[in-house]
Amino acid sequence: MTEHGEQREVFLGRVRAALGHTQTIVPDEPPAVDEALVRLATHDDDLITMFCDRAASVGMHVDRITADELVDQIVAKLVELDAKWIVVGFDSLDQADALNNAIEAADIQIVNWLAGGATMDVQFDTDVGVTDVHAALAETGSLICNVDAKHSRGLSLIPPVHIAIVGARQILPDMLDYFATQHDATGIALPSSQAIISGPSKTADIEGQLVTGVHGPGKVFVYVVEDV
Amino acid sequence: MSASTTSLTLKGHDILFPPLPYDMHARADLATGDDQLQRFINNATLSKDLQRREVCAQTFGDNYDAMRSLAAEIKQHTLDHLDHYLEQFVDAATGTGAHVHFAATAQQANEICVGIAKREKLTQCVKSKSMVTEEMRLVPALVKVGVEVVETDLGEFIIQIDDDAPSHIVAPMIHKDRTAVARAFERELGSPYTENPQELTQIARNHLREKYRTADLGICGANFLVARTGSAVICTNEGNGRLCTSVPRVQVAIVGIEKLVPDMNHLAVLLKLLARSSLGQPITVYNHIMTGPKRKHELDGPEQMHIILVDNGRTEILREETREMLRCIRCGACLNACPVYRKLGGHAYGAVYSGPIGALITPMFKGLDKYPDLPHASSLCGACYEACPVKINIPKYLIQLRAQMVRRRITKWPDRLFYGLWGMSLRHPATYRFGGWVQKQMFRAKARAAGTAGRGDRYTDRGWLSKAPGPLAGWTRARDLPTPPSNSFRYWWKMRS
Asked: Per-residue pLDDT tens for B79-104?
């Protein structure tokens, strides 16, 4: 579909001409990515500690907990934050039902966005988004939040506070390891949206002074469940 | 009023589109005389440059150079086979349900974007920072057809409401102070006057969140396009990029064709260098990898994703001799490292791209005869080359542009004559000796006439010039030039043996 633009062939023709090609030449392999240079963490590292340290150093609040503590810890945090209205997306957790029940027992209202109740518009009014993650990176202390049928684009982005639950086994050493999982899945489309998140939203545009929470969440709490 | 002083009265984005040919001297003089600008830009660029070096050394150690070589190789390979990777990207992106458009020029790219807005009856746009949309002057084109466009990057937002223009690729309002922000917010948003950056940011947040909520069009650029998967990647610290590409019904990504990388592992290499080079931080807070619009079973996300691939002069630079310039990933490290940018700021370059990379690509995009000062706006010290994560040899290409200016007679005739004679005199010992003798006699005569010769000690009795002729005039603006000594180096050398 072209609106007013050029036809694909005309456009590509100019590129080929600049390259001195009469037709598209398929190159041999692209440059090999030398892991000795690029890799910044391996499976031999203490991934949980590395993840926690680096996530903390980019400004996220990190706690290491056990699966038994999870429900109490999350509810305590929500109470501490004085959350009234939250959105959740942690379907993959074993404790999902227990957590939902405990949150509601604490008089915090969960907006059920899976049932269509929390459109993006509604998410702007919520206090907290609580999510699981698809993976985490030790190298940079990053959370990876992807979109699928059970995960909204908004939960880790729109509410002013994001609480993320990370299973220890989800922590991958390096970005290369995460991208490799996608490499194997040739033929299977990537998620429409993948967010690699490393810290709270921040800016230093006004005289170089660091301010957090400019558009996205100003606070990110990460619970690393060590025995999951 | 001369063309160069006319450029001083421009407002808003017109600052980046001055009358051509552009003479940078008026703005350069203004910038060097502005104490606050000097302090701000000097501090910000020095600290960013230091952070880059520290963080890269700490992360990559002895591998830093090899890492940059790998990144350079990846980008160069992609450009060498850009026809293939573009085809691969277009097929993959189309397969994910995105609409890919092709724009030969800025005007065509604007027409495509305006066409989408009209057809879909879109009226409210949130936009994240994108250099190519600055090239295109997209915002006024959309406003003209009734679309309200809000820049959402905090710096760009402030610049938009204060009718200013960005002056740094990464930190667009590096030249502005907090009082300017405070006044603009009070005037344009009706907020109570405050100079506290935290409070100012909160005011902007509240204002912009309502804009995101109701916007039906989200416009972004892309830091990278991944050929194999058809993905577009944007990197922001603020989260505005993610909001612009998640909330509105229609998403338009406008991207220059040089942004391609072959695959995800290549993306990893560049992501590991981008934020470290740019800001001295390991990674930007949000790296958003977008592969097509919302899928059928997903509950939110844009219903339409359009990708406009923009040429706008890039295929000219893609020729073998200059291809390397297109490796640029717009990290801004060369601006931070540059002693000239540090003194002049971005507006003096009179174009969308400033600093060393701007001095190089602006004449390439717009014509060397339109920006004759830019290839000379460099001390050729090589700091930009050293800072560049994809090893673009900026000094080498600046020298090539200068040579082209002489060949194409863009350099003015008095300069050509002076340097021509100088070159001739350096070519043979006899002419060199004669040239030196003439220079000594002329300078001595001038010194005697000015009354500076013939008094004082052995260093001062030969006199000095307070105002040297021709191209040396700039040198004597702030200091005196001693006349040549009686005994030349050649004389000493002869006496030694």
From this structure: 999 999 999 999 999 999 999 999 99
